[in-house]
Every structure is written in structure tokens, then in C-alpha cells.
């Protein structure tokens, strides 16, 4: 498509390729336009013949003057100027325009979707989050939530019109009464939070991860990982859920030592050993320098 100025022509021909017919040839066209056959070049009158409703299914989509499949009002005129298509409502003729200058109309898009049984089944939450929850079995654990908010991830969308999975019609974004053993979202915004509600205003996970981060007992870590714990800490969860956060996100809340959310994290043993060794090395270096100075005095 080197000439973008003729985009409408390309769209028109693609429309034919996927099964669309000319708008001005639809079975109900006589309600909207009149064809002036006297002005049409005789060899091209075939392109103005009307289809019957047995030949063309309009899928309930109404006639549209602005369709990219609609010829211009002087199309195929014997002299190139005379009007071949006359709108019943002459004010609508400006909508017909010229094919080469058009874009897809709403009706063009709608009828193709109906023809091919396209469904716009989407996840209300970010796809990556819905897919992650689905992989954890949440479609079965929390079906009331997941099959509405993550329909696509739970494979609850119609499949090409051959088989359709029944889905719940509830529109609530609240979590279901039965909690999951893994975290699930609270109502939007899009940052996810766990399913098991706490006594405070926000929800936190009911159990630690199935594979907690292994660490030296003296090392301050976040068992749920730095990313999630820091995210929850930034949202005030250290104060809202101090018991849970203090245990599983100690590093983020600063509760490894000292408590109260302001404690210092324990230093890893290897680091303490290295620091002690460094002090000994520095002391030895200092003693050597002092002895050297005494020798040269």
C-alpha cells in the first residue's frame, strides 16, 4: 500500500475478499437510494443490481451511507460526471463521499464481526495477572470472581460459535466469600492484592508462599520477595497488617530487629565475618606501620 491517499480502495477490495458486497446492492437499498441507470455506463450496470435477502444476509445491520463498500454518487457514469446514485434524503449524499477517501464505518466492522462470529472476550484485569492466577488454579478456586474478571484467562469465551461455555453474569469486582490459598485481587486499581481478608481495611495473604525464600536465620529478607513486599509497604500494609507483614516482609517493614517498623535488619553472617576480618587486617597494618616508624626514629 504505497499510496496511503487511496486507503479506501484497498479497504474496499479487502472487504470483498472477506465476503462483503456493495452497500448500494443490499436488499434494502431501495429504502435509502435510487439508482439512475440511465446515467450508468451500460457495460457496468451489473454492479448496481440489487441482491435478494436470500442471497445476502445483512445480520440485522442497517444500511450505511458512509460504508467503505458504498460507491460514490457518480460511480461508473457514462460521462464520468452524471449522478448514478441518488439518496432518498439528499442531505445524506455528503456521507457517501468517494470510496478512495473513506475509512471503515462502524457498520463495516460490526457486520464482519457478526459474519465471523468474532468475540471481544477480554480480561478486566491485566492479562499477565489473570493468566498468572489462572495458572494457579484460581478459575476453579474462585470462579465467581475469575470467570467474570478474567474470562479470557479462564477460557470462558465463546469458541468460534460452535460451543459456548456458560459464564456467571454478576458484575461485582469484590472477592468471593471462599478465600483462595494464594493471593487474589481486591477491587481495582490494577495492583493485585491477596484473597484472604484481614480485620483491617486491606487484604493480605493467608499463607506464606509455597516455596519461601531460603536464607540464613540471621539475614533480613522478604519471604514474599522484594518486589511484592516493597509494593505492599508503599501502600501502608506494614501499619495496616503489622503481624503478617512483620513476619513475611520483615525487610520491607524494617522489623528484623528492634520491632515497631523502624528496626534495623540483621547483617548476614558472612558480612559480619568479613567485617571482623577487615578490622583485624587494618589493625595488623597499623601495628606494622607503628613498628616501622619506631625503627627509623
UniProtKB/TrEMBL annotation:
PROSITE patterns: ASTACIN (PS51864), SHKT (PS51670). This is Metalloendopeptidase. Residues 121-157, 220-256 form the ShKT domain. Binds 1 zinc ion per subunit. Its cofactor is Zn(2+). It comes from the Eukaryota. Keywords: Hydrolase, Metal-binding, Metalloprotease, Protease, Zinc. InterPro entries: MetalloPept_cat_dom_sf, Peptidase_M12A, ShKT_dom. It comes from Elysia marginata. Zn(2+) binds at residues 12, 16, 22. Residues 1-119 form the Peptidase M12A domain. Its EC number is 3.4.24.-.
Amino acid at each position: 500500500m504505497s499510496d496511503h491517499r487511496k486507503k479506501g480502495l484497498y479497504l474496499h477490495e479487502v472487504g470483498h475478499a472477506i465476503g462483503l458486497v456493495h452497500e448500494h446492492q443490499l436488499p434494502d437499498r431501495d429504502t435509502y437510494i435510487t439508482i439512475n441507470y440511465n446515467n450508468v455506463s451500460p457495460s457496468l450496470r451489473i454492479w448496481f443490481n440489487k441482491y435478494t435477502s436470500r442471497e445476502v444476509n445483512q445480520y440485522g445491520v442497517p444500511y450505511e451511507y458512509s460504508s467503505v463498500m458504498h460507491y460514490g454518487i457518480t460511480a461508473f457514469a457514462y460521462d464520468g460526471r452524471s449522478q448514478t446514485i441518488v439518496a432518498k434524503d439528499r442531505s445524506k449524499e455528503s456521507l457517501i463521499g468517494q470510496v478512495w477517501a473513506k475509512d471503515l464505518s462502524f457498520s463495516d466492522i460490526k457486520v464482519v464481526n457478526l459474519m465471523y462470529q468474532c468475540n471481544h472476550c477480554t480480561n478486566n484485569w491485566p492479562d499477565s495477572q489473570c493468566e498468572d492466577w489462572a495458572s494457579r488454579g484460581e478459575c476453579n478456586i474462585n470462579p465467581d470472581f475469575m470467570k467474570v474478571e478474567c474470562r479470557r484467562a479462564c477460557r470462558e469465551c465463546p469458541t468460534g460459535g460452535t460451543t459456548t461455555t456458560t459464564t456467571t453474569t454478576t458484575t461485582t469486582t469484590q472477592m468471593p466469600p471462599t478465600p483462595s490459598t494464594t493471593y487474589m485481587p481486591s477491587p481495582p486499581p490494577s495492583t493485585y492484592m491477596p484473597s484472604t481478608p484481614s480485620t483491617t481495611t486491606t487484604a493480605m495473604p493467608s499463607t506464606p508462599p509455597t516455596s519461601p525464600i531460603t536464607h540464613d536465620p540471621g539475614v533480613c529478607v522478604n519471604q514474599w520477595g522484594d518486589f511484592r513486599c516493597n509494593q505492599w509497604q508503599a501502600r501502608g500494609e506494614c501499619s495496616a497488617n503489622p503481624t503478617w507483614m512483620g513476619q513475611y516482609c520483615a525487610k520491607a517493614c524494617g522489623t528484623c530487629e528492634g520491632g515497631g517498623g523502624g528496626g534495623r535488619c540483621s547483617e548476614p553472617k558472612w558480612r559480619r565475618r568479613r567485617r571482623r576480618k577487615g578490622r583485624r587486617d587494618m589493625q595488623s597494618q597499623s601495628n606494622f606501620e607503628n613498628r616501622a616508624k619506631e625503627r627509623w626514629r
